[in-house]
Amino acid sequence: MLQLTLVFLFSFFALGILYTMNTIPEFQEPYVILEIGVAVLVIVFLFYFLITRGNPPKDALFFVFAEFSFTCVIDLTSALEHDGIISGFMGFYEKTGEPYLGTPYAIMMCYWDGIAHFIMYLMMISRITDRKAYRTLGLFWAGSLCANMSVFITGIVAGNYGSEIRPAFWLNFLFLLMPICAAITLFRRPKDRPLIGGYNAQHAQSMKLIWRPLDLILVLLLFAAMTFTILRGLVALDSPLEACSIYLKHYEPYLKDPVGYPRVMMLHLFFYGLPLLGAFVYGLLKPGCTWMSDWTVFFAGAIIQCQWAHIGGSLHPRTTAPFRIPNDAFWSVLAANLLYTVTPILVAFRVQSNPYFFLKIAPFPGQTGLPNSEEKDTN
């Protein structure tokens, strides 16, 4: 509990650093911002390393979560200042640091990082210090931050801010590489639950889809999500199909916002999300897909972050009128986007809450010549 409290309180020292940089012109030069950024990250790491030497955490990811908690306060401050709620902290950074943080998509992204990710970090730090498992929450966070940073970095380069890249831009790659490394680490760790089930798993897997109404609904929702992904992906690819033109003009003109983030996000979902949605359909039809428990959680984290930033960005006051959702289509577009967001989350919840269909079935005594110790029903 002491380490958790220290991480929480120390994170707010970021406000003092921002205020100092905002009031001293010498600290506002592009390369100086990069140097200070690197120095702060190193100092924060050394601080947590030194204070935990007497009782070092069993998990090295503790330092990643503690470090990123510090940057969450910076992101939340950025979002609040760009929305005019506070002032005096980030004015210099928009001018000489990262001007694209003032775009609607980036503002909503910073809100997500400053609130949702911050809460996740504190929860995972608490689990680490209490010697408890956090693998599922960790995969959700990894999916969220990987999607966050991959869209953010690509959108900067591909959008109309590609010509305004400053030295501080390169710090973003740390926040892309670390969740990727963390995701690989978490995927390799043993699952929180056994992969093998007994009678309950055999009974669940003997039922056809027609007798599993919840799974049937989820399959239909996944097909609808796949259709929606294809449509918006083709719009992002400038398809000449009439359906794409109609959707772009009358429903989501935000997809063509020159800032670049919406288009990049749709392409990410088209090339990476679409195969996963199809794989989830397969996993709901084919018994024993043990990978469903991990990948549904990872993708749920990714989709909720992307859709939060996308929906919020399209509704944000800074989005110019030609790219906002038309009034006559507002509720239909909002409902479609919310349903698209909820579908992978429902699939992940289904897998986590009732995993028997997705387990391997243990052989019962008499079925094989396995020793009794290997024939026990793990359930």
Automatic annotation (TrEMBL):
Swiss-Prot/TrEMBL keywords: Membrane, Repeat, Transmembrane, Transmembrane helix
Location relative to the cell: Endomembrane system
Keyword Transmembrane among UniProt keywords: yes
Name recorded for this polypeptide: Transmembrane 6 superfamily member 2b
Sequence intervals crossing the membrane: 30-51, 60-80, 100-125, 137-157, 169-188, 209-231, 265-285, 297-317, 329-349
InterPro entries: EXPERA (IPR033118), TM6SF1-like (IPR047195), TM_Tm6sf1/2 (IPR059044)
Recorded topology in the membrane: Multi-pass membrane protein
Family the entry assigns: Belongs to the TM6SF family.
GO cellular component: endoplasmic reticulum membrane; endoplasmic reticulum-Golgi intermediate compartment membrane
PANTHER family: SI:DKEY-19F23.3, TRANSMEMBRANE SUPERFAMILY 6 MEMBER 1/2
EXPERA domain boundaries: 58-183, 214-348
A GO BP entry: regulation of lipid metabolic process
